[in-house]
Design brief:
Largest sheet: 5 strands, antiparallel
Strand order of the largest sheet: 5-8-7-6-9
Mean pLDDT: 77
């Protein structure tokens, strides 16, 4: 009888040790790591309506659960694209915020503030002539209604009450009805348009038939902006 009890006791001890060993192994064994995936993120903050360049992005490894079908994964998805929203450093990019860029060869996109009453009802995609319109009380070397750009394309228009232009850095009062307008223009035209916008001297005229209007560059005599 004592021998039987001894066997049972030994068996119980062995079983207990096995259970403890099994539990210890499970607790201390490495857990299966969640699958990861490489995505593209901006290397720096990018302003709205900027044309995207591969050099502005870097690779970041994230958990697979943080990625969906709209996340930008490779540089091919950025080719010939602009962003319609601000992109922030190290943050994933949603493909739905990207848009195919127009022909931007030898041109650049600028963002300026323009009084909503001077937009000529133009919206994104429209072509406009950009004018410097001087106030009668203002002393300036630029004559009234000087053409600063022909057939500039509007890439986007932000809503009323915008406090700053993301690309030119202009500031306006809360009472202003200016809108942030993103224009595709020639590089040599950009400084005049930005400066005119800062003085609230810019007006747009919608081009109804852009194919019939030739490109006209401003001259230094016409645009001697002070």
């Amino acid at each position: 009888m004592d021998k039987k009890k001894t066997v049972i006791t030994i068996a119980a001890i062995i079983l207990g040790l096995l259970v403890a060993l099994f539990a210890w192994v499970n607790i201390n064994s490495p857990q299966d790591a969640e699958a990861s995936v490489n995505i593209l993120v901006p290397a720096k903050d990018i302003s709205p309506y900027s044309k995207l360049q591969a050099d502005d992005f870097k690779t970041r490894t994230v958990k697979e659960g943080e990625v969906d079908s709209y996340t930008v994964l490779e540089t091919a998805q950025l080719q010939d694209m602009i962003t319609t929203v601000a992109l922030y450093s190290n943050k994933p990019v949603d493909k739905r915020s990207l848009s195919l860029a127009s022909d931007t060869s030898n041109k650049q996109i600028i963002g300026v503030l323009i009084d909503s009453t001077r937009l000529s009802n133009a919206t994104a995609g429209d072509y406009v002539d950009v004018y410097w319109v001087s106030d009668k009380t203002e002393t300036t070397a630029v004559a009234p209604a000087i053409v600063l750009s022909r057939k500039a394309q509007i890439i986007g228009v932000d809503g009323e009450g915008t406090s700053t232009s993301a690309m030119s850095g202009q500031k306006i009062s809360s009472e202003s009805k200016a809108k942030a307008v993103y224009l595709l223009v020639k590089p040599e035209e950009a400084p005049y348009i930005i400066q005119g916008s800062m003085k609230n001297n810019i007006a747009l005229s919608k081009v109804l038939n852009p194919q019939s209007v030739p490109d006209v560059l401003i001259t230094e005599e016409e645009a001697d902006v002070q």
